[in-house]
């Protein structure tokens, strides 16, 4: 397992990682499995070690809104474990995933003060990211928002090939729509626009970015 850049585990020391893993037990899920459910009151957190998940919520009308994609090294369920409130989102496995389930996470933080500070900084980063996305929804058109998410995916998950950066993350167009706050039809149109400009190539659950700089410019 290699923790992805920016995820919780990359902020900890080797000793803290060992202690955190020792505080829990291993568990795995198949692709498509619901790892956590919105509204549940369970008190455990998941330290993700392998695979990627999507974090999503549903509107009153039943539309899924994708809030984030998390990969190896990510920490999930921390807010509910700390304040005792119901889960604010559903976590679903985008591929087979495994990790460590940790109960009494507040107890762990009480004896590992530096980890608590790291978590506070991570939560602050999430709030900043949430604010940035709200600005995007008001300032960018659908194509700009789709381009922004594709840049993020390419930078985090892109695999260099002879034709460009291949993003193999299994996100459907419906899920991409939920991540950009747009309809599936609008996302399809945006992807077609980006293809016509030669910036990307799309296939079933994959995207190849041919011109990352050009995609960044369109995102802005």
Automatic annotation (TrEMBL):
One GO molecular-function entry: DNA-binding transcription factor activity
Domain Cyclic nucleotide-binding as annotated: residue spans: 8-97
GO cellular component, one term: cytosol
Domain HTH crp-type: 140-213
Keyword Transport: no
Phylogenetic placement of the source organism: Bacteria, Bacillati, Actinomycetota, Actinomycetes, Streptosporangiales
Protein name (record): CRP-like cAMP-binding protein
Keywords carried by this UniProt record: DNA-binding, Transcription, Transcription regulation
Presence of the UniProt keyword Transcription in the record: yes
């Amino acid at each position: 397992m290699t923790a992805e850049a920016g995820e919780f585990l990359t902020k900890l020391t080797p000793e803290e990682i060992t202690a955190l893993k020792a505080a829990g037990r291993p568990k795995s899920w198949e692709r498509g499995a619901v790892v956590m459910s919105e509204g549940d009151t369970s008190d455990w957190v998941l330290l993700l070690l392998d695979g990627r998940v999507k974090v999503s919520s549903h509107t009153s009308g039943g539309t899924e809104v994708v809030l984030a994609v998390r990969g190896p090294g990510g920490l999930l369920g921390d807010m509910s474990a700390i304040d005792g409130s119901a889960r604010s989102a559903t976590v679903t496995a985008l591929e087979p995933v495994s990790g460590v389930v940790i109960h009494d996470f507040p107890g762990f933080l009480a004896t590992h003060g530096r980890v608590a500070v790291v978590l506070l900084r991570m939560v602050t980063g999430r709030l900043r990211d949430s604010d940035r996305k709200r600005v995007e929804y008001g300032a960018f058109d659908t194509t700009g928002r789709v381009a922004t998410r594709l840049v993020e995916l390419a930078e985090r998950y892109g695999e260099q090939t002879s034709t460009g950066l291949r993003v193999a993350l299994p996100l459907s167009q419906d899920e991409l729509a939920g991540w950009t706050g747009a309809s599936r039809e609008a996302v399809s149109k945006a992807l077609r626009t980006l293809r016509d400009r030669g910036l990307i190539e799309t296939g079933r659950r994959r995207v190849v970015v041919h011109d990352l700089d050009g995609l960044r410019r369109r995102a802005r």
